[in-house]
Structures are given as C-alpha cells and as structure tokens.
Design goal:
Blueprint lengths: L1 H7 L16 H29 L4 H4 L5 H10 L5 H15 L2 H16 L19 H20 L5 H32 L1 H8 L12 H21 L4 H34 L1
Length: 271
C-alpha cells in the first residue's frame, strides 16, 4: 500500500512554485498546501468508505488492479453504456491528477526557452498580468494528453493495464525528480557563495530547512528503498513498457540538449 499512499499525495509540494502568480504568497501558499492535504485526506477516507461498503465488497476488490472500475461495473452493470465514458474519464484523471507537476514542468520549459535559449522563444510567452507561462502550460498539457491517450488507444492494453502503466511512469519519474532535487539542494547548501550569504545575514529563509542536509540524505535513503520496490515490479512486462517509455523520453531530451549545447558552442567559437 506504500506506493498508493505515495501516489495520493504526490506533487503536493509543487504548489510552492506558484509564488510568482500568487497574491501574498507567504500566507496563501502554506494555507493552500494545508487545505490540499486536508481535502486529499478526506477524499481518501470517503473513497475507502464507499469502496468498502459497495459491491462486491472488500474481500473481492482488495487485490483488484482497478477497484474503481470494478465498483462502477457492479453498480451500473457490465453492459451499461455509461461504463465506457467512466473508463475514459478515469484514464484522463490519471493525467489531470498531476496538475501541480504540469505547472512545475511548464515553469521549467518556460525557463529553458526564456533564459537558456534551449527551446523555441514561443514557449517563453507569459500572461501579461499573472506572469503564468501560458504557452508552456498548453504545450505540456497537450503532450501529456497525447501520451495518455496513445497509451490506451494505440495499444492493446485495457483500461486497467493502461492505468498501471501511467501510475508506474508517474511514480518512477517523480522518484527521479525528487532525487535530483535532493542532490541539487545539498550541492546548493555546500556552495561557498550561499554559505557566505547565510553567514552574513543576507539570506534568512531561502532554501533553508530545519532538517538541512540530514533531511535531504534521509529523503534519498527513502527514495532508494522505494526505488527497490518499484524495481521488483519490472518482472511484469506491462511495467517494463512504462519503464522503457520513460527512458525513451529521457533519451530524446538528452539528445536535444546535447545538440543545442554543441550548436551554441560552435556558434560562440565562430564569432
């Protein structure tokens, strides 16, 4: 059950990235995170209560790979015309559940386009008032929906298997992201420039944590244990597909980044 617990609150911390768009972020962002945690906890309890009290009951759905689909089948009937719509909406919900990661990825895409000039300038466009990376959000959302729908329609996978592929891909990539963030945090804390600012009193809250490096190391240890649990799932071919798809996307972006860096260096040398 640990992966599902991890999944349920996945991406909640990314709300802090709305600091540029939020009004009075010092107050509103902590309140938003607290309200989100409360909402998710209440929804989890409600889902547990409804799922356990609905047919076919806990003994039948405890090992079910897609219990929500099974519950709707029992309530609406196996031949209900609404069942296909529910399956389609359920598939989209796996992507929509990562709205914070979509926003997080959009911020990165916008930065790569505006500051590093790696991506096309069009992706750097922001809202004139809220400064939200509109073009990057549309691009990331569109790409995510294409991957989600392709996983289901362009393959022979059922709704259950498609959901498992998407869940595993989300858990794997989020684990990679959290690991990179923890390592980057420790490297930033060890940077002499940051230590100088902190010791001189110029930085009182930037990237500070009561746990500091100990918290980052503890996080990496937990991620290592969690990654071992994910690795055991690779014995099934459906998870191998998800793992291969993630590596394929990584390879594309690494190749593009290498090409852009090489192209930029060659232009600098010619000038």
């Amino acid at each position: 059950a640990a992966p599902f617990l991890f999944w349920f609150f996945l991406g909640l911390e990314e709300l802090s990235l709305c600091v540029e768009e939020a009004e009075n972020p010092k107050r509103t962002i902590p309140v938003a995170i607290l309200c989100s945690m409360t909402t998710l906890f209440c929804c989890a309890c409600f889902t547990l209560f409804v799922g356990g009290s609905s047919p076919p009951g806990i003994p039948e759905i405890v090992n079910d790979a897609a219990p929500i689909v099974t519950l709707f089948q029992e309530v609406l009937g196996q031949d209900s015309p609404y069942l296909y719509v529910i399956r389609f909406l359920l598939l989209l919900s796996f992507f929509a559940a990562f709205n914070s990661f979509v926003f997080f990825a959009s911020q990165i895409v916008s930065t790569l386009a505006a500051e590093l000039k790696i991506l096309p300038p069009l992706l750097a466009q922001r809202h004139t008032y809220w400064r939200t990376p509109v073009a990057a959000i549309v691009t990331v959302c569109g790409g995510g929906l294409v991957v989600t729908l392709t996983t289901f329609y362009a393959s022979s996978l059922s709704i259950t298997r498609s959901s498992q592929v998407l869940v595993f891909a989300a858990l794997f990539n989020s684990t990679m992201s959290y690991g990179f963030q923890a390592v980057a945090y420790m490297r930033m804390r060890a940077d002499p420039a940051f230590r100088s600012l902190y010791q001189n009193g110029h930085s009182t809250s930037l990237f500070l944590s009561p746990l500091a490096e100990f918290g980052a190391i503890s996080c990496l240890c937990y991620l290592a244990i969690f990654s071992f649990g994910l690795a055991t799932l690779l014995l099934e071919w459906v998870y191998l597909i998800s793992f291969g798809l993630s590596l394929f996307v990584y390879a594309i972006f690494l190749a593009y980044y290498y090409y852009q860096q090489t192209h930029t260096e060659s232009e600098s040398e010619s000038e």
